[in-house]
Amino acid sequence: MQLKALILDEKAMKRTMTRIAHEIIEKNKGVKNIILIGIRRRGYPLAERIASLIEIIEGEKVEVGHVDITLYRDDLTALSEQPVINSGDLGLDVKDKVVVLVDDVLYTGRTVRAALEAIIDHGRPERIQLAVLVDRGHRELPIRADYVGKNIPTSRKEVVSVRVKELDEEDSVKIYE
């Protein structure tokens, strides 16, 4: 694969995450009853960052959990003959909460659909909203994000690579061909 473009560097990612935090606060008229759930892998550190930014802006802590969708993926056989069974615990109670589901890239919508199923299996939230760092298009399901860091029209041949310091030792969003 060859690097086509650097879309967001570290500073641009921080600005984007700050804007998303402000939008979540504004849309919900504060942060009462809000929890963030990050989709593993990169959605979880992004959710933690958004929660930290919300705490700086509002002075209130927002709980953060995570969802591992391995058991809910519709492409499981493509991943492995024997899928790894991960804990089904989200880390928090979703009943009657406003859940903001956080992921790095929104593509076909299948990952989000799986995450929605996992969340609903744990209780009935008041509402679920979706925040993504990158929306690259090519939806296969009727899913759209409430909060989008960057819309990046791509071809199906391109790869959007989100890197986060917590896992990759750098913050960036790049497109490869």
Q: How far is the N terminus from the C terminus? A: 5 Å
Q: Helical amount among residues, as a percent range?
A: 25-40%
Q: List unreliable stretches of 5+ residues.
A: 79-85
DSSP strand content = 25-35%
H-E string: EHEHEHEHEEEHE
Q: What is the CATH level 1 assignment?
A: Alpha Beta
Broad shape: globular
**Computed structural class:** alpha/beta
**Biggest β-sheet description:** 5 strands, parallel
Helix count, DSSP H or I runs of 4 or more residues = 5
CATH topology descriptor: Rossmann fold
Known CATH architecture = 3-Layer(aba) Sandwich
Order of neighbouring strands in the sheet with most strands = 3-2-4-5-6
**Total beta-strand segments:** 8
What is the CA-based Rg, rounded?
Answer: 16 Å
Count of individual domains: 1
Q: What's the pLDDT, averaged over the residues?
A: 91
The gist of it:
The chain is α/β, with parallel strands linked by helices and 177 residues long. It has helices at 10-27, 43-58, 76-79, 110-120, 165-168, and strands at 3-8, 34-39, 63-67, 98-106, 127-135, 147-151, 159-163, 172-176.
Q: What labels describe this entry?
A:
Rossmann fold; 5-stranded parallel sheet; 30% helix; 3-stranded antiparallel sheet; 177 residues; single chain; alpha/beta
Can you tell me about this structure?
There is one protein chain. The chain has 177 residues and is α/β, with parallel strands linked by helices. The chain has one domain: Rossmann fold (3-Layer(aba) Sandwich). The chain has 5 helices and 8 strands; from the N terminus they run βαβαβαβαβββαβ. It has helices at residues 10-27, 43-58, 76-79, 110-120, 165-168; strands at 3-8, 34-39, 63-67, 98-106, 127-135, 147-151, 159-163, 172-176. The chain has a 5-stranded parallel β-sheet with strand order 3-2-4-5-6. The chain has a 3-stranded antiparallel β-sheet with strand order 1-8-7. Helix 1 packs across helix 2 (43-58).
